[in-house]
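User: Quick sanity check before I run a bigger batch. Here is a single chain. Can you write out its predicted 3D structure?
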Amino acid sequence: MPIRPLLAAAVVLLLAACGESVAAPDADPIVAAARAVPGVDAVAAGYLGPDGEEREAPPADPDGWTLRLEITHDVARGSGWAIETIEGLLADRPDTALPRLEIWLRPTTPADAEIVALAYPSAESDDPVGDAYLLAGTPGVARAVFDGETADVRVRDESDLAKVADVAAVNGAGVDVVRTLDDTAELAVADAPPRPAYVPAAGPWPADPAAPACDPAQLRLELTGQDAALGSRYLFLGATNTGAAPCALQGAPSLAFRTLTEQPLAVTVLPSPAADRVVVPPGGRAVAMLDWNAMPTAGNDDLSYEVLLAATPGAPPTELPLTSLVMAGQNPGSYLDIVDAGEVMVTAWQPDGAAL
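Assistant: Done. Predicted structure follows.
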């Protein structure tokens, strides 16, 4: 044996005999590479044998073993960053390399939710990484674990089941059932109340002075769109009449805002001047717009992840996570740059197709 390895071995034995701890080198170069990635907060590595044996040190014969990496990072980095990081780590690793490799992501969130996703090997059909990030940004979620085949999604309170199931349904997430942490209640995603189909207005709506005020129970409230230009921000709101007869809305909706941990934000909402009464036909959608100037968000976790929307002041509000907003060709966002002490403006309800 060459002299240098003998000397190194002797030093290790001497340190061990003296009670000094000796850090073992990373068994696989990918472990050190993962720890060196900017934005990675921690990397845990372990080996799983074909018989279920677990160990920290690499086996003498890696055939049949799996190296599992768990990469912890701030969810604010985004799913795109996570995917690029995985691709970079795998760039020089042959697919046939032993031991077999699994990479799991553990994004941390301001809500301290348990979010875990299998990032490698890639799932054949579902998108566990995208689904995990989607639910990580949804208020009420306490756990979202995706392994490419199964999903375990939990909420803290039974009242959060419907909105989280709706987010999963409209985004096509690979989860069948949403459960509470204590297993006392659950809701199948397929049983989430369906959203009414959008039917564009074919022409001007009739005035119908005999139409009664809309019953809040017969209005389906939604976030319908989002836009930005030159420092201004816009969020579009919808109220669909799911009843069998026309009903009337007048004035602006009532709004409030909550953080990812479902804490209220002190936001001033300025309604536009009173507008004409709007009679919404069955299946029709009244629209309104939220307008604000960009607000500073650096280092602030208390952003608006959820809008509480009521059709009129005093009506029961509907909890609408930003992740419930689905726009064709765009990845779902999870928050608005609306913060404590912010100020926003909202228009009155208008007929669908009206200029806002």
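The longest helix spans residues 3-17.

User: Great, the batch can go ahead then.
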